[in-house]
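Design review, sub-item: ligand-bound model
Attendees: FS, YL, KQ
YL presented the inputs for the flavin-adenine dinucleotide complex:
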Amino acid sequence: MGAGVAGLRAAVELARHGDVLVVTKESVAESNTHYAQGGIAVAMEGQVDVALHLEDTVNAGDGIVCRSAAQALVSEGPIRVAELIEWGAHFDSEDGELLRTREGAHSLARILHANGDATGAEISRSLVTFARVHKRIRFAEWTMVTGLVVANGRVIAVDLLDRENMPNRISAGSVLIAAGGAGQVYSDTTNPSVATGDGIALAAQAGAELADMEFYQFHPTALSLPGVPRFLLSEALRGEGAYLRNDRGERFMERYHPMLELAPRDVVARAITREGMGATPGESRLVHLDMRHIRTIDLHHRFPGISAFLKEHGLDLHRDLIPVRPAAHYLMGGIKTDLAGRTSLVGLYAAGEAACTGVHGANRLASNSLLEGLVFGARAAQAMLADNLPLVVADAPLQVPKPLSEREEQRVEEHIAELQASMWAYAGLLRQESTLRDGFAAQEECAAGLARLAERGKGSRRLAEAQALSRVAHAILHSALARQESRGAHFRNDFPQRDDERFLNHSVFGREDHVIFEKW
Ligand SMILES: Cc1cc2nc3c(=O)[nH]c(=O)nc-3n(C[C@H](O)[C@H](O)[C@H](O)COP(=O)(O)OP(=O)(O)OC[C@H]3O[C@@H](n4cnc5c(N)ncnc54)[C@H](O)[C@@H]3O)c2cc1C
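KQ shared the predicted structure:
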């Protein structure tokens, strides 16, 4: 399920041994992977470099990175990236040497990039091209997974809805969820519209455990122009020397962290939020990214995609201050898996942003997620092959949903918009018990409204997405309420300190909305 970096990498591995169906909600090019700009972090310089990458990953995760997962990521990363280059991915290079940049919380420059700021599109292009020539890989594009079929505690099939809203059921020896993140749960997000957390919601509905759902990374610098999408302004801009300035023109990061603009993302995002608050509630002040002092690099050449987007809106990196504010960007949590992608349900595996191996802890190190997709996509595929579960034919009847009326589809959109706004207001960068409880009230109202539509036997892609968003919101709210401390991306105004005595653990969200804390 999913044709981003994790799903495609897994498909290539699996196809060496059997038939693979890659299901994707839109075209293969529509994924978070496709929009990744800055690059892929990888330690290509031997053991010292690998050890430093491990320490940077562990430090960014604020105390709860699963060290064995991070070790797998940084040590297998170079092999996976070398393999990708062999399969046709072109990273930017000069005189035969790969170019590397630095991003926040990395101790050195180790980020490879492609076509300047279009790294994800190149990774996606090369993997899709490589997978498409493989006879044993079939693609079902514009097809949505709407359900997991469970029999005797094992996932044996998936339910699909094609672009004509026609249902279908496919039996599978094993199912990999590589359906990406859930940025659409927030009104402000850098994620494309497909990122509605479907895989996470379906896994939870089928009975799989989720973990670390309170940790949503808010990217500090998404473009902030009225009526313009929250376009990402990559961390690589700060890696190349961009400053952040408040509305008085001050470089304010020195008040927040010794690493200044390259401090961990959560620190920078909260600093921008605080600098952006006006003197009275509701009043906001502009924060800007400033690259006007950079003379040694041609910013248009280095960041062609970003420069082109800004130009459409009358802005220029060399000439202008660029208005920014944070937006929901990356979910550290997800479906709880072991290091081989196995979930708590037999037959169900997860990899990439939809999964939680604990590799990111409370805060992902910039550019570690494309690498995660490669490393854990391959690992999950290897586990699926090793487990070699037999195919079981699902005999439960397939329900054919009745279409929603235009008015009902509109009501679904309203529920989604209300949920997104409430999650931004109540479970965003700065949280506290009272706001999280307000968030629950809004989420419950949304869930009840959606249930009334579904009860009448109706179904559509948007209704399924709305239900997924509501389930993901529910898990985020529960996990955020249970973690009575501040750590990484999760900040509680009512518990502003890190509490290692009680919470140096991962949260696990399971059946009956129960949250427990576990050491991994
Ligand atoms: C703007 C932006 C910039 C980023 N920049 C970077 C960067 O520079 N470096 C970095 O490391 N990371 C970056 N990230 C994060 C990174 O891109 C993602 O975490 C990573 O690509 C996730 O890969 P994935 O394979 O897990 O999921 P995705 O790439 O999101 O793929 C998910 C797939 O699942 C499919 N899908 C979803 N639901 C269903 C369903 N119900 N049925 C069928 N298919 C479904 C989607 O259509 C899609 O094909 C960025 C993210 C964004 C949004």
